Amino acid sequence: MAPRIPPLPAGPDGPGEAGAPRPVPDAPGLVEFTVDLTAQEVRRQAQVLAVLGPDWDPLEVMRQEEAAYALLYSGLDEGQQRVYDDLVAAGVLPRRGDGRAAA
């Protein structure tokens, strides 16, 4: 028994208006349903920026992140340096500065 397809809701613009289910022409029995999440994404972005506050400086955050990476790979012994160089050569880690870990 074929599933019953309910009639399309009629709105101000008639059947099939934005957001209303529409039959899929090439697939009888299926209904296309679209949802516009633009408003939700704008709300989410506004909430994130509100939490970060007016003092948030993305460039300073990136500078601090680079400093943390430099510190992370500093003071490596010979074996660690060799592993670091192998990881850079394999493309696992990005090449930084002269290609050597910071001293």
Describe this structure in words.
The protein has 103 residues and is mainly alpha-helical. Helix content is 41%, strand content 4%. It has 3 helices and 2 strands, in the order ββααα. It has helices at 38-52, 58-72, 78-89, and strands at residues 22-23, 31-32. A two-stranded antiparallel ribbon has the order 1-2. The longest helix has 15 residues, at 38-52. The chain is elongated, with a radius of gyration of 27 Å. The mean pLDDT is 79.
Strand content: under 5%
How far apart are the first and last residues' alpha carbons, in Å?
74 Å
Main sheet, how many strands, which sense, barrel? 2 strands, antiparallel
Tally of separate helices = 3
Supply Rg. 27 Å
Question: How would you summarize this macromolecular structure in one to three sentences?
Answer:
The chain has 103 residues and is mainly α.
Keywords:
3 helices, single chain, elongated, 103 residues, mainly alpha
SSE map:
Layout: E1 22-23, E2 31-32, H1 38-52, H2 58-72, H3 78-89
Antiparallel strand pairs: 1-2
